[in-house]
Amino acid sequence: MVATRTAELEVQIDGDGPVVVLLPSLGRDSYEFDPVAHDLAAAGYRALRPQLRGVGRSRGHTAGADLHDLATDVADVLTHFDAAPAVLAGHAFGHYVARVLDADHPESVRGVAVLAAGARRFPASLTERVAKCSDTSLPDGERLEHLAAVFFADGHDPSVWLDGWWPDAIELQRAAMAATDKESWWPVAHAPLLDLQAADDVFRPPESRTELVDEFGAELVTTVLIPGSGHALIPEVPHEVANALITWIRTLD
Known about the structure:
alpha/beta
């Protein structure tokens, strides 16, 4: 457990070496990063997995919290472990936190990997379907239909995401997004970026593939496309994700 300025976060640690911080998707926990963290550790890296507020044993004030507060939590974790500058890898919602941390605390960031990041703008209907995926009051059959349509590519089992949702964290994270001006971080990138895209991600249609390159240039942004994967990405192809991360991180040396 690590005390930050306004929260207390549970942090999992795997391996020794240069630090890679793994940040989960909306309302999800860091446990599903197990295969990725283990691969990173085997390759000589130290994987830090802070659970965001409301997940696991992590706690902190929720009223008025925005993405800058959640990013500062992670910056404080890096300070606690004397781990800055570190590589940040954020999955979907987690990439918001990673990029805001780079915007607010560039001295703490060596590089930012965005994993299955949605396009800058995507249909509101997708957000509505995500809410149904995580609503455990709905029948499993209905939720599986939404999970298959929104998160998982063909050939992957969406039932692995019937569990593992944290309702308090979902509420907090949605409020944090709404409370944060996107222009305070979207046009900002101090550190190199890895745009790791899932080829079948409905949140990232083909016409949006070059958004980050168009914004920041090919000198700063490396794009990798993983076939046969959807927005869930991590439970679908964890070892491919780890391999892409490790390959890119080695270019930062």
